[in-house]
């Protein structure tokens, strides 16, 4: 048994979430989970010390369901991590691109390689996820079937890289959040701090406009603001936000005091160091 601490992620070994674990927590043993909920529960139950969750992608926007899962997770954000999504065409050893007739991957990755697949007349096959598709290609041993995945998947499943970095967009990056059962408010990052929170405005005219005013007047930079529906209602919107700063900073403290006056619910999900790779 390994004495290393563990970190849970959604997907098979070799997924981009697994790569994020290597980048952000190389001293942790990765624990693959079937769903985001399973990864959260593994951390909540104590099976793992941390959980790695993707939150947004530079090409496709926010990851579905994550914003609604985070407030209910019972976990706290303690770090962020960025992974450059390089996509490779992977085949069984000895295969050439000319042999490949079909490529399997998650539907999002298939959509990110349209130009390459069309150029080589390769048909798209939807798989459950990227690393899972690489695993299937390895198990079937069919030279006509390839997978779209990263270098880590090729390494784990013994596949050849037939073509490297075939994505259509040259800057495709996914942002991940490192989650823990305990918040850590003691740190001060060398590149600044970020605070993530969710809130729901009161049902009064211009509530969102007034709630945001405190951040502007106190010089607090808001890097993200997104709305999403809760409870199946078209009227009750909840907001997810990232700001630069720590709740103990004077400007942030005053901005939160003003925000609290115009909200029915306000919950800080985490305060953590700003990753220099976000630049």
Features:
279 residues, 28% helix, alpha/beta, elongated, 34% strand, 6-stranded mixed sheet
Structure commentary:
The protein has 279 residues and is α/β, with parallel strands linked by helices. Helices cover 28% and strands 34% of the residues. It contains nine helices and 15 strands. The strands form three sheets. Strands 1, 2, 3, 4, 5 and 11 form a six-stranded mixed β-sheet that branches. Strands 8-7-9-6-10 form a five-stranded mixed β-sheet. It has a four-stranded antiparallel β-sheet with strand order 13-14-12-15, with helices on both faces. Strand 3 (50-57) and strand 4 form a beta hairpin. The mean pLDDT is 93.
Task: Write a concise synopsis of the structure shown.
This protein has 279 residues and is of the alpha/beta class. It is 28% helix and 34% strand. The protein has 9 helices and 15 strands.
Overall average pLDDT: 93
The counted number of beta strands is 15
Catalogue the unreliable spans.
none
Main sheet properties: 6 strands, mixed
Q: Which structural class is indicated by helix and strand composition?
A: alpha/beta
Order of helices and strands: EHEHEEHEEEHHEHEHEEEHEEHE
Strand content: 25-35%
Quaternary arrangement of the chains shown? single chain
Could you give the distance between the termini?
39 Å
């Amino acid at each position: 048994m390994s004495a290393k601490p563990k970190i849970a992620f959604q997907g098979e070994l070799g997924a981009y979430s697994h790569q994020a674990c290597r980048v952000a927590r190389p001293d942790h043993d990765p624990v693959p989970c079937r769903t985001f909920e399973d990864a959260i529960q593994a951390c909540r139950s104590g099976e793992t010390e941390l959980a790695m969750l993707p939150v947004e992608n530079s090409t496709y926007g926010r990851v579905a369901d994550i914003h609604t899962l985070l407030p209910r997770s019972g976990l706290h954000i303690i770090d962020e991590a960025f992974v450059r999504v390089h996509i490779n065409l992977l085949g069984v050893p000895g295969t050439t691109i000319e042999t490949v007739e079909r490529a399997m991957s998650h539907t999002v990755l298939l959509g990110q390689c349209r130009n390459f697949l069309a150029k080589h007349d390769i048909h798209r096959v939807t798989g459950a996820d990227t690393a899972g598709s690489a695993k299937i290609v390895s198990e079937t041993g069919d030279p006509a079937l390839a997978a779209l995945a990263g270098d880590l998947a090729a390494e784990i499943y013994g596949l050849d890289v037939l073509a490297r970095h075939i994505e259509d967009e040259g800057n495709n990056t996914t942002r991940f959040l490192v989650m823990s059962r305990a918040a850590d408010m003691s740190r001060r990052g060398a590149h600044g701090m970020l605070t993530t929170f969710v809130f729901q405005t009161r049902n009064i005219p211009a509530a969102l406009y007034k709630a945001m005013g405190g951040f502007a007047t106190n010089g607090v930079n808001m890097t993200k603001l997104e709305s999403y529906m809760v409870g199946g209602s078209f009227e009750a919107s909840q907001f997810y936000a990232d700001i630069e700063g720590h709740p103990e900073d004077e400007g942030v403290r005053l901005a939160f005091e003003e925000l609290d006056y115009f909200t029915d619910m306000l919950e800080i999900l985490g305060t953590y160091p700003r990753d220099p790779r976000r630049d």
